[in-house]
């Protein structure tokens, strides 16, 4: 045989051998996990997951075990008896207190996988990491999972996203899918923007017309909708099973037209209805005339800041008290969000009185009040939380008054902003936000006067003026949202786009596995 032929056969064989050797995933440290764990130690072997693998854990983890089983495609057995030597073990264990209530260890050995945590949330997050390590069964119907140890816990206690269900109504099923997706990326808060000028989306039993009339339309004039209190309780329960707290927002004193359209008793002359976008609603659901106070029309446009409640109307405080009371009753989580943004037609003295009143009423209902950063103008203190979105001045002022801050800088994390000028939906009033823009920032250095001690965490809002359905939601949220999830969970040290974009590119396949319809940014080399 010719020497060159022999050489090429030899090197060819080496290549084949090398690629065989590299095929099984045996390096845990090179897996493309998002959010990036605090520490990963690889030991270079693999656990062979087969249809015979047993899941072991307390009955409380049966649902979680089922999600792991489904991801494998095998019909895996779940047992509460800790007898098998081999298997996947989901265990509560208070050995490592430094992990807190959300941290976990995931130890992958050749014969077993063990998730340990101090509290159920930690077991849940450990399982989410494991789910990212499970690929489709390969040859011989085995899934190989690289061995090693992951020790992991969150940086911030608040890791959230917001859905605006007012501008376009989003079904209960879609909200639940969104909860599934954000919790998979270890986010623990879903803020629901339940009311705005265009639609009131939550049943309030003492003011039924809010939802029945205030919920009949949306931006563009389409059919709106609302959640009954039973629907809402279903969302809350679904979220709780995934360690997500629902934070309901009733936006006041502005962004309130849907209420003014439902009850003439709330309407007032300070409201400046835009010239276009009015909508009367079906005759049988019209707003209620009160003496000579007529309700406004419903609104289907996109302008902001033109509506307001007024303290000059006797019904106003009764409305505020009833809405907050009913919402508190159906919300087990500790927070109520009262909005407070863009009150452009509310007189400043009146705005301050409103926010002070909301603070008292929310407290009287045993909840912690959250408001957008404009609430810094009122008499707030360390018992309330302010959400930064646009004004560094207001955000810093809120922090100086002792409020904890949720960081949602619109230039970085507003998920409704277009990626670039070709994005088929979305707005761009803060500019375009590519995937690297939304990843490249840090909550502790973003605003002068706001440091680590002030920051409760991060939240990525998805406003819905142009976002109509779940396809739109996923396209605008992903993949930016999972970068924000990483900012919320992972240590900031060493974070950089060059490393992340490679991990994200490889992680694309996992998002495809979750059937997420994500934006394939040209800044990322997506592997397929
Ligand atoms: C906001 O974007 N108006 C909070």
Descriptive notes:
The protein has 528 residues and is an alpha/beta fold. The chain contains 15 helices and 19 strands. An eight-stranded parallel barrel has the order 8-9-12-15-16-17-18-19, surrounded by seven helices. The chain has a seven-stranded mixed sheet with strand order 1-7-5-6-4-2-3, covered by helices on one side. Strands 10-11 form a two-stranded antiparallel sheet. Helix 10 links the parallel strand 17 and strand 18. Helix 2 runs parallel beside helix 3 and helix 4 runs parallel beside helix 6. The longest helix has 20 residues. The chain is elongated and about 75 Å long. The N terminus is likely disordered. It binds acetamide (ACM).
Helix count, DSSP H or I runs of 4 or more residues: 15
Structural class: alpha/beta
- The best one-word shape is elongated
The separation of the N and C termini measures 39 Å
- Low-confidence stretches are 1-22
Any guess at the CATH architecture of the largest domain?
Alpha-Beta Barrel
Please outline the major beta sheet.
Answer: 8 strands, parallel, barrel
Look at the structure and give the mean pLDDT. 94
Number of strands: 19
What does the radius of gyration come to? 26 Å
Q: Approximately how much beta-strand content do the residues carry?
A: 15-25%
Find the CATH superfamily of the largest domain. Answer: Glycosidases
| Helix fraction bin | 25-40%
Taken together, the total number of domains comes to 2
Bound molecules: acetamide
Order the strands across the largest sheet as they lie in space: 8-9-12-15-16-17-18-19
Instruction: Please report the first level of CATH classification, the CATH class of the largest domain.
Output: Alpha Beta
User: What fold name goes in the CATH topology slot of the largest domain?
Assistant: TIM Barrel
